[in-house]
Fold this sequence. Notes:
Strand 1 (25-26) and strand 2 (29-30) form a beta hairpin. It is built from 9 helices and 2 strands, in the order H-E-E-H-H-H-H-H-H-H-H. It is 72% helix and 1% strand. It has helices spanning 14-21, 37-86, 94-103, 107-117, 124-140, 144-167, 190-207, 213-236, 242-283; strands spanning 25-26, 29-30. By secondary structure, the protein is mainly alpha-helical.
Amino acid sequence: MGVHPPGTPDDDSAEGKGELTDDRFVGDTDLARWESPAGKWLASSAQRLSAHLGPYGALILVLAAGAVVASLLAFATGGVYEAVTEADGVAALDHPVLEAAMTLRSPALDAAATAYTDLGGGIGMPILAVIATAVLVLRRRSWTPAILIVTAAAGSLLMTIAGKQLIGRARPPLSDAVPPYEYSPSFPSGHSLNSFVIAGIVAYLVILRCRSRRARAWTVTAAVLFALTIGLSRVFLGHHWLTDVLAAWTLGAAWLVLVITAHRLYLTARKTEKLSRSRGGTQGR
């Protein structure tokens, strides 16, 4: 019996068996089954791509297309955001929420919040993502977690850059913020967006291997609390307005749906490939 390296598309490998038996179901839900006409069309398109590029090639291509959609979504959200702030709608909460947060500050709480928010920053978040990726890749003997996490992170970074360049919104006044100060545009909150996406995709990958409803619930709870508290820490420290964080969560949720959908299409392509091989093997006997 040959040894299959991580990432091989061979369905007889440990990865192939694991992905089709362990990653395909969440409870009783078959992720490779599509009920809606749109879902069936997507699945059919993914299968055609997989026939030419292989399952991994199709996954990467779909994720790349999703990244383009995500960047367009960031621009669209930016336009909506400008309309909302001009109409003084949700943005009317920005100043009252910041003022309320300032009343809660103390030297000890400020230091704790600063240390915690750094977990979602440009150094802390990549380190956490690399650790999570390494653990998942080694445990599963598959490159799929690496592809999903790296693509999810790249997409969220792309949306952050696009949003900041489009809007250029000023952060809260430095007099209302806790140092160290930040000077880049405020919309959207990169900490909030990136932590939401990374925590979400890691939680999704973990949930795929959870066999109990309680374990899945705890995993979702941990991811939600992490993303929520990172976002709120940005407002507490006066580094972002509340609407910057809300917009980041919205963008993150939309991008996460696209990444998970791409993975479901990948599983569907692997399932179809396996069925085709089985039929071919049966006919050859």
